[in-house]
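Dear H.,

Thanks for agreeing to be a second pair of eyes. The structure we're designing against is below in token form, covering all 450 positions.
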């Protein structure tokens, strides 16, 4: 496994320093609560002491959960009455749950205003354990709520296009734990351009008033989207590392179970936890339905978001690229157009490899799944299928990727390789069901991440 270079560490530190209200500005309030935070500024303990726990064991920050920030489409805005003309979530509490991957002794959270039309004013925030450890619940376990601060302050204003990182919170989190994150916006965000991740496959809850510390939210309005929250980091053993996954709806989990956490990256993480050699590998799902490699779709294209979603994430040492079907499926169903999109995808994959390798990150290419029978993407002349096969042949044989993960082989119908197995898709011949996602999880070679 390649290790990040010292240059990469400095670049990552620089990216964090550029966000607002960062711990480099913190006062003495963080001196005992945030080892490893701001240690390059000289404000806190030395880098050597700050990188170790009370027992002297080496520790570092690692992203343990992510969601790809997107501009929220009109039909994915907060439900009434929480969206008004030019204003969202006025005097509103938002509670949402996320499932972290690896665990640790402390957590800190990232909130994004990447696509906001105005500053995002977070009045108060907290993190807790959900009641029963469940995803999608509006209740938290009594006594587990911890207030979040930002450079020692209880609130934060996230500028347009920026993110904010909370101060660390002492909270022992086991691998695979669900966390409940609660925000209160006293004045809302004064724009209808806001940042979210619509394909959460997890239920969030909205309620008027300040209920950040409330144990449950009776009468709250449910919605299956995440808003503003873009990452959770954990203070974990030095051997803990992360793998990021770039993908589209097949990785975002369309066809998976709401609040079931059975997307293929979730099921793969469960498999990793069962092996001692991979139990400290965080899995970061940086996918979005409708996303494309070459052109913007739902969210920025992969070439545009690579720096934000992979290179700037803490602890990333590996990358899986599983994207390109939407590029093929939305290009014209002509021989010339499909030859062009196949060539452009191959060139884009090479660019991704070059840029990731420059940061010491291994890149694994995953083959694209068949879509025969899908109403939107399948074409009678087979030009799109020809492009898919050309791209997959290159992924398998070019040697440009550090390794190949053959998802196509795992779920295609042996009797009709241009189609998915009938028992593994969700009815549209494009997206998988939980059993199909389990096949993808099982197809990732264990030897790649020992």
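And this is the sequence the design step returned. I haven't edited it by hand at all.
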């Amino acid at each position: 496994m390649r290790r990040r270079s010292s240059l990469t560490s400095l670049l990552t530190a620089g990216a964090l320093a550029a966000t607002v209200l960062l711990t480099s500005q913190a006062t003495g309030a963080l001196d005992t609560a945030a080892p490893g935070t701001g240690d390059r500024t000289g404000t806190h303990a030395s880098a050597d002491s700050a990188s170790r726990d009370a027992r002297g064991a080496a520790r570092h920050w690692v992203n343990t959960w992510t969601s790809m920030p997107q501009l929220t489409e009109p039909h994915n805005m907060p439900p009434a009455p929480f969206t008004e003309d030019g204003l969202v979530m006025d005097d509103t509490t938002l509670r949402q749950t996320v499932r972290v991957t690896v665990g640790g002794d402390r957590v800190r959270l990232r909130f994004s205003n990447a696509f906001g039309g105005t500053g995002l004013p977070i009045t108060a925030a907290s993190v807790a354990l959900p009641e029963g450890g469940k995803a999608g619940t509006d209740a938290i376990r009594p006594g587990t709520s911890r207030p979040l601060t930002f450079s020692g302050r209880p609130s934060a204003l996230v500028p347009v296009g920026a993110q904010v990182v909370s101060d660390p919170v002492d909270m022992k989190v086991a691998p695979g734990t669900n966390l409940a994150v609660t925000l209160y916006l006293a004045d809302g965000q004064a724009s209808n351009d806001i940042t979210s991740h619509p394909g959460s496959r997890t239920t969030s809850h909205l309620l008027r008033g300040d209920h950040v510390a409330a144990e449950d939210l009776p009468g709250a309005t449910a919605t299956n989207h995440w808003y503003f929250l873009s990452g959770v980091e954990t203070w974990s053993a030095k051997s803990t590392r992360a793998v990021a996954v770039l993908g589209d709806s097949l990785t975002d989990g369309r066809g998976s179970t709401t609040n079931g956490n059975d997307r293929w990256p979730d099921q793969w993480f469960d498999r990793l936890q069962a092996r001692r050699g991979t139990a400290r590998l965080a899995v970061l799902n940086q996918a979005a339905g409708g996303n494309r490699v070459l052109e913007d779709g739902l969210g920025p294209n992969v070439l545009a978001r690579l720096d934000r979603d992979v290179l700037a994430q803490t602890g990333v040492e590996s990358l899986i690229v599983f994207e390109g079907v939407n590029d093929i499926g939305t290009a014209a169903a002509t021989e010339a157009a499909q030859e062009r999109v196949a060539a452009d995808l191959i060139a884009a994959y090479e660019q991704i490899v070059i840029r990731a390798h420059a940061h010491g990150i291994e890149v694994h290419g995953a083959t694209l799944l068949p879509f025969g029978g899908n109403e939107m993407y399948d074409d009678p002349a087979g030009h799109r299928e020809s492009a898919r096969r050309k791209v997959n042949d290159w992924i398998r044989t070019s040697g440009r990727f550090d390794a190949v993960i053959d998802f196509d082989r795992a779920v295609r119908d042996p009797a009709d390789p241009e189609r998915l197995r009938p028992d593994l898709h969700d009815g549209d011949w494009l997206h998988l069901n939980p059993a199909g996602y389990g096949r993808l999880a099982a197809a990732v070679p264990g030897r790649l991440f020992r």
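Two observations from my side: The first helix runs from residue 6 to 18. The radius of gyration is 22 Å.

Warmly,
E.
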